Amino acid sequence: MSPATTDHGGKGAMTATDIQIAICGSAGDGTIAAGNILRNALATAGYRVISFDVYPPEIRGFGKCISRLRITTEQAYSLKEKSDCLISLDDSHTIPHVGEVRDFGAVIFEAKPVAQVPEGGHITAHVRPGQIPYGFSIREISEQATSSNRSRNVVALAIMAGLFGLDKGPFRQTIDSTFGKKNKKVAEVNLDAFETGYAVGAATFKLDSVKFGPPGKSVRQGKVTILSGNAATVRGLLDAGIDCYFGYPITPATSIMERLAVEMPKRGKRLLQTEDEISAIAATVGAGYAGARAATATSGPGLALMMEMLGLGTIAEVPAVVLVSQRGGPSTGMPTKTEQSDLNAAVYGSHGDSPRIVIAPTNVEGCYRCAGKAFEMAEAYQTPVIVLLDLYLSNRYETVVLANEAPFNPDCNKRWRRTERDEVYRRFAASDDQISARAIPGDEGGMHVVTGLEHNELGRPNDTPEIHTAMSVKRHDKLKAALRHPDFTICKRFGDDGPIDVGLLGWGSTFGECLEAMFMARAEGIRCAAMKVVMLSPFPADPVAEFMDDCKAVLVPELNFQGQFARLVQAELARPVVPLAKVSCGPMRVEDIVEEIRRLAAQVHQPLAAE
User: Fold this and answer.
1) Of 364, 430, 444, 349, whose CA–CA distance to 397 is shortest?
2) C-alpha–C-alpha distance, residues 82 and 157, integer Å
């Protein structure tokens, strides 16, 4: 694949720019800060950006940090396997990643270490034939520009920008806005460091093949911005009119609460940090019962603690939104590594038959839509709704286009209104759609009983087989309407139409890698298509079955050990699929998916053995 052009599978557009840059260093080197500046500057310049940072579990002072960014002029869907440029801020952490730079890509590093390094300890001993090494006195340049080595990250970034001839304006604007908020003098120092480093890079004879084309065409409709998955989720919650948020900090969901803590008071809304996840979900269900749009966010360990109260939300038919950003497990597991292993807990967790709606966005813009639509569904179908994110999606930044006006319905309640003076309100009354009219506490004549016990239409405890059967049917059947929820994509097909050799079924953050793999397979002449499944419960059996009818083989890539989504598909449809289950602690490799597509395509074209 050329670094300058990429075929996006027959969309009719060739990208003029498709560059991936990786910055690697130790905690405290400013690796992530440099990545943030680069990301925001290039987004400001008009490029599309996907970025994802890797950081250690320790809070400060230890471990490796990597910031990876893919910069394109057309929409891309995942990071690339090989980077076009690697910037080293710490050779000991960067050396293992030198092999991730493509042939004729650039490796930028410190040429004058302050201390003697052991044999093989300098990055120059590991740069591979075909890679282009660029050694600079990064520390000296920083000290000359700012009388400190603390600007090494900005200098290294500036050298890269100068070497590749990037416009200085967006970088200066980003640095000024980033550091100027803290201290104008700090901003000026970093601008000096950038100018000095840029001049050095621009004066360097360029040998690599990395070339940036002009930015893509501007978007005419909507607001173009760059957001992380968690930031987009917060935007969706706010635009949907969240009233209350209750939460307890847990990686990687914490930034949802942090951002809401800043924004909600401005809107007269309430946020409470609770003592644990149990009280967070209890307060969320309680606020939902009182008529508020209420949400909480957690990760796998917190979701485990919420199971009992989720069951209460189901039997009491109370709206509640739970955002779950998955991480490596089980138990405390790997807080800073991504995984898709809470699917079983989200769909099947809690005691008894406890159905709820589970949706999973596949990109950052989807985080925005799913967060807002979750409130609509919770109210419309009177049930808890779980939105499944993961660390990769929560922390991934993408250039997105948001509508100028919020696309969410501010009130989806089926409200009860008293029609007769002596009318008895039946909170759980039977109806054609199995959704009962809902009275909010305080509504005149709407007094009723809500309990965690099985109950009759009035809400009074009743454990007869007839009542339990009727209420079980009610709680399950009413959710089927969510498969037709207005203006919500439950699943969508991409790629070749009609009969195909290999179909990909993907969910969550891994679907971006599925799309990229599909494009590559189609470029090789393999008839291939991919379907993203956003609604996981209730399961969209009919459209998925229709897609599978066209496939000679179905591949299900996902980031967990058991192949949880593959098992869900097989349980719902009783059809065979091929799982591709990885626990790689990071995003799935596109090449792994492509390799499996090739294998399956060759297999389905093998002649049948003679009888």
Assistant:
1) 364
2) 19
**pLDDT recorded at residue 510:** 98
User: The tokens of 572 are what?
Assistant: 């719902």
d(CA 323, CA 295): 8
CATH of 225-402, one of 3.30.70.360, 3.30.70.120, 3.40.50.970, 3.40.50.720: 3.40.50.970
Query: How is domain 491-604 classified at the CATH fold level?
Result: Rossmann fold (3.40.50)
Geometric angle at alpha carbon 396, from 212 and 16, rounded to 5°: 20
More confident residue, 219 or 90: 90
Cα separation, 381 vs 542, in Å, equals 21
Instruction: Give whole-number Cα distances, 519 to 217, 349, 499, 512, 556, in Å.
Output: 22, 36, 17, 11, 16
Q: How far apart are CA 510 and CA 77, in angstroms?
A: 10
Dihedral sign (CA 306, 308, 314, 319): negative
Q: Which helix (H) or strand (E) holds 537?
A: strand 535-537
- The domains of the chain are located at 18-202, 225-402, 491-604
The DSSP string of 26-71 is: ETTS-HHHHHHHHHHHHHHHT-EEEEEEE--SSSSS-SEEEEEEEE
342 C-beta neighbours (distance < 10 Å), count: 27
pTM higher than the cut 0.90? yes
Q: Give the position of tokens 């987009």.
A: 232
Q: Which DSSP state fits 444?
A: T
d(CA 309, CA 384): 10
Contacts of 458 (CB under 8 A, 6+ apart): 424, 426, 427, 428, 448, 449
| Residue 527 identity (one-letter amino acid) | R
Measured between alpha carbons, how far is residue 344 from residues 153, 382, 527, 563, 564 in Å?
A: 42, 22, 32, 10, 7
**Confidence class of residue 283 from pLDDT cuts 50, 70 and 90?**
very high
Indicate the SS3 state at residue 277. Answer: helix
Continuous segment of H or E residues that includes residue 311: helix 307-315
| Cβ contact 368:214 at 8 Å | no
Q: String of b and e for 347-358 (b: at least 16 CB within 10 Å)?
A: bebbeeebbbbb
> What residue type is 480 in one-letter code?
K
Q: How confident is the model at residue 5 (pLDDT cuts 50, 70, 90)?
A: very low
Nearest-CA neighbor of 19 among 74, 68, 70?
Answer: 70
Q: CB count, 10 Å around CB of 487?
A: 10
Assign residue 434 a region: left if phi > 0, alpha if psi is -120 to 50, beta otherwise? left
225-402 matches 491-604 in fold: yes
Tokens 């760059």, residue? 226
Please tell me the distance from the alpha carbon of residue 170 to that of residue 42, in angstroms, as a whole number: 7
Classify burial at 404, counting beta carbons within 10 Å of its beta carbon; exposed 0-12, middle 13-18, buried 19 or more.
Answer: exposed
Would you call the peptide bond into 538 cis, given omega within 30 degrees of 0 as the criterion?
A: yes
Instruction: Name beta bridge partners: 110.
Output: 136
Take residue 170 and report the two structure tokens written for it: 């967006």
- What is the spatial distance between Cα 600 and Cα 352, in angstroms, rounded to a whole number? 39
Residue 221 has pLDDT above 70, yes or no: no
Helix (H) or strand (E) holding 297: strand 294-298
d(CA 198, CA 194): 6
Residues in the chain: 611
Top-level class of domain 18-202: alpha beta
310 DSSP 8-state letter: H
The values of phi and psi at residue 593, to 5°, are -70, -45
